[in-house]
Design a protein that fits this description.
- β1 and β2 form a beta hairpin.
- 0% of the residues are buried.
- The N and C termini lie far apart (80 Å).
- By secondary structure, this protein is mainly alpha-helical.
- α2 runs antiparallel to α3.
- The protein is built from four helices and two strands, in the order αββααα.
Length: 112
């Protein structure tokens, strides 16, 4: 590479590092990327997931009526549903289930 091309590449990398922050690699071993969605609480996360599911339902119902008349305006419901799956806080649900089981097991033991 010529010196000018090397300088341009360095400048481009600096510029990219300052702006391209929304998506980052999960690890160097995979080609998958991660991004953050900020939520104030689990309650808000629950509403976001529910609204995304409602959006998919409405989209599917409307798609039934349109039946591929204009594909450009159609929503890709599969992508939205994949995102909804990723939004579910499964570790937290697992924790809540274990906590629930432990509380009720302990209270049953105390009541006997």
């Amino acid at each position: 590479m010529e010196k000018n091309e090397i300088e341009n590449l360095k400048n481009l990398k600096k510029l990219a590092a300052g702006y391209l922050k929304s998506v980052g690699p999960i690890s160097s071993e995979t080609q998958a990327f991660v991004t953050k969605i900020r939520m104030q609480s689990y309650y808000e996360l629950g509403y976001a997931i529910t609204d995304l599911l409602r959006l998919c339902i409405l989209s599917l119902e409307e798609e039934e009526h349109k039946k591929a008349t204009d594909r450009k305006s159609c929503m890709n419901v599969a992508i939205i549903l994949e995102m909804v799956i990723q939004l579910f806080p499964m570790e937290e649900f697992e924790f809540l289930s274990e906590l629930h089981q432990q509380i009720f097991t302990d209270s049953d033991t105390l009541n006997e």
